[in-house]
Design goal:
single chain, 3 helices, globular, 65 residues
Length: 65
Amino acid sequence: MPACDRTGDNCKCTYPGCPRRGNCCQCVAYHRERGEATACFFSAEGERSYDRSLQHLMRDRGIGL
């Protein structure tokens, strides 16, 4: 895996103490391994639940299954 450098302070993740906050490639890799979406895909309200499941993302975005 290529080196992942910090990408900035525009990260939408509000999870306290997240070691990947502000490092998009680490965040994407972490959540992808778990079948989850990253905070930046959710609305502000949806992100605050810390539920990163794809099912929650669909509900958050109003997409029916």
